[in-house]
Amino acid sequence: MAVEHPRPFPPDDPDCELCEAARFTHWYDETDHGWIADCEVCSVPMAVWWHHGTDPAEEVREALLSSLGAAADARFGPGNWEFDTTMRQVPSHFHAHARDRHWWNLRFSRPISLHTGVGGERRTAAGVGDSS
Predict the structure, then answer these.
(1) What digits encode the pLDDT tens for the residues 75-94?
(2) I need a surface site. Which of 13, 47, 77, 96 has the fewest CB within 10 A?
(3) Which of 38, 39, 33 is nearest to 62 (CA)?
(4) Is residue 119 part of a domain?
């Protein structure tokens, strides 16, 4: 299990919900570059850059997508998901989703995950270890 650390620095933009990095859904990982957690809207893993902006350095982007891929493989199984780097609801802050093939149909019916620390077993409001 990864060690949970306090936010490494104040938010770049105090009005940005992704800069806030609120911990209320499951967090898969946290690195120097950003964090991987379930999206509160669609309940799939997403990677978020710590800094406000849309263009992280290529090595930062690659590292975030690598961490996101590991979380998606664990959640959905290798080959059962794809990256979505379109920043729809927060277009001013780099983030990417790992979407399984059923995410659109299940986005409102999947139980929201619960924050219980960084890493460890994913828990949802519906029960422990819900893999959907």
Answers:
(1) 999 999 999 999 999 999 99
(2) 77
(3) 33
(4) yes
